[in-house]
Amino acid sequence: VIRGTATYNINFVDYTVHERDFLFTPPGTVIEMTKMSDDYAVEVLVVSNLPGIHRQDIEKLKLFEVIYLSLTDEEWQRNTTYFFLIAQQLQRSNPVLEAISHLVVSMIMDIQNTWQTLATKQALHYVSRGEEVFTKFLNLIRQYGATERSIPFYATRLALTPNHLSAVIRQQSGLSVMDWLNRITVMEAKILLKHTSLLMYEIAERLHFPEATAFNRYFKKQTGITPLEYRNK
User: Fold this and answer.
1) Residue 124 pLDDT more than 60?
2) Pairing mode, if any, of strands 6-10 and 31-36?
3) Does the predicted model carry a pTM greater than 0.70?
4) Which of 99, 170, 230, 233 has an alpha carbon within 20 to 30 A of 191's alpha carbon?
5) What is the mean pLDDT of residues 44-64?
6) Is the pLDDT of residue 23 over 70?
7) Per-position DSSP letters for 24-68, written without gaps between them
8) Which among 142, 146, 143 has a CA at the least distance from the CA of 205?
9) Do 133 and 168 form a contact (C-beta atoms < 8 A)?
10) What are the strands, taking DSSP E only, across the chain?
């Protein structure tokens, strides 16, 4: 983040970022910007492949968690340099893709090391049973939330009663289980409306609604507009 502030919903968790913050999002991440200041500015690098890097080396990077860091002056300078070098390579008439790949891998490893060092320092923090349940619940709704909207479904997988699960989730997040399920369903619906040409009945089927009219009513209740209005916007 170069300047300003913004709020992103990333895998259904809100992150508010400020100047000199750094976000890394792994493959398969669902991101929605919900707010930004007028002066918000960022540098973004999107990586779709890494030529010259062996698959096993990519797997060693363990690209499976969101990393959010507020960088120190030294860390900021170092990562700004990575971005500058990558941009310089990309702007060449004949960019050396393997060199770019190694710069990207170096930056990722650097950020992961910073993140792990911070995590080690925070490991002394006792993780309560409620925090553990909430983390597992988030992992489950990322996997099933867009199609499974039954509280007992998640309670069973967490070996809890529906009432107990509801109480824990509200205590940990301030939101109900259904709030979380609605959030993930709406986000998945927005992705399908924005990035596919699926018809309404096809989206309804994919999200396990009995018919298109039921999906239409649900989406309008959650967002204030119909799915078609959202797509046309």
Assistant:
1) no
2) antiparallel
3) no
4) 170
5) 87
6) yes
7) E--TT--EEEEEE-TT-B------S--TTS-HHHHHHT---S-EE
8) 146
9) yes
10) 6-10, 13-17, 21-24, 31-36, 67-70
